[in-house]
Amino acid sequence: MGRLEGKIAIVTGAGSGLGKAISETFAAEGARVVLTDIDMEAVTKVAGAIGANAIALQQDVVDEQRWDEIFAETADAFGAPHILVNNAGLVIPGTIEDCSLELFRKQTSIMLDGVFLGCRSAVRAMKSNDQPSSIINLSSMAALQGYSPFVAYSAAKGGVRSMTKSVALHCKEQDYPIRCNSLHPAGIDTPMVRQEAVGASGGETPATGMIKIGDLGHPNDVAALCVYLASNESRFMTAGEYPVDNGVLYKPA
Fold first, then answer.
1. Using CA atoms, how far apart are residues 14 and 44, in angstroms rounded to an integer?
2. Among 59, 104, 179, 199, which residue carries the largest CB count within 10 Å?
3. How far is CA 41 from CA 23, 65, 121, 159, in A?
4. Tens digits of per-residue pLDDT, 68-105?
């Protein structure tokens, strides 16, 4: 406990799934957390359950001006942020043959443009911080393997993977106190993965114990790594890509 004591974090897409778990875990480790989501009702409920060290803000991550407002409102509420988790996303099925340009752009705007805007605002806000800061970008195993039923999702997450490295190296070159890393989960037991379009099935994933290869992971499996990458424990780690996949990358299910 207390691994993020004194830290201030922003987590996007925090109304459910991974964003919810990450926010809850950050708060449990001592961080003050700003939870954002396009669904204000959902994110307000999550922030309320966390308590006084969390606030909820409505955000569409493709709204450029809103990003500046989010960082300003965070500073007003808690102080200058040290952590940004770019988590907001969606998945819509479509292969290279049947994905429309409209649906391709919709997914890449949220998961690639939105991450770009978040990283840009974070670097501008965090570069003068007096303690180490961290940007964590949620990519996917789809960026490392490709996933033919979801061509737009795979393209967006692949862009996040390489953009993360560019952001990290820029911060090192400018001597900013900011690290930037990407996480690459396989299937995690979240509402997005459970939706009919993705087709995940089976029993609910237990929070503890071993998981068979090919089964869904638990949101806390991702949240735990986020805590490490957000903390000063990972001070020597930047531009990295970290699978959270139960070995699927090397032994596809």
1. 9
2. 59
3. 16, 22, 25, 30
4. 999 999 999 999 999 999 999 999 999 999 999 999 99
Domain count, the chain: 1
Catalytic residue positions, numbered: 153
In angstroms, rounded to a whole number, what is the distance separating the alpha carbons of residues 61 and 183? 19
- Is 143 within a domain? yes
34: domain range? 8-244
Residue 222 domain flag: yes
Look at residue 115 in the predicted model and tell me its pLDDT.
98
DSSP summary character for residue 242 = E
In the predicted structure, residue 195 carries a pLDDT above the cut 70: no
What pTM did the predictor assign? 0.93
CA distance 53 to 73: 14
- If residue 166 lies in a helix (H) or strand (E), which one and from where to where? helix 151-173
d(CA 90, CA 112): 11
For residues 33 and 223, what is the distance between their CA atoms, to the nearest angstrom? Answer: 14
Query: What CATH number is associated with residue 225?
Result: 3.40.50.720
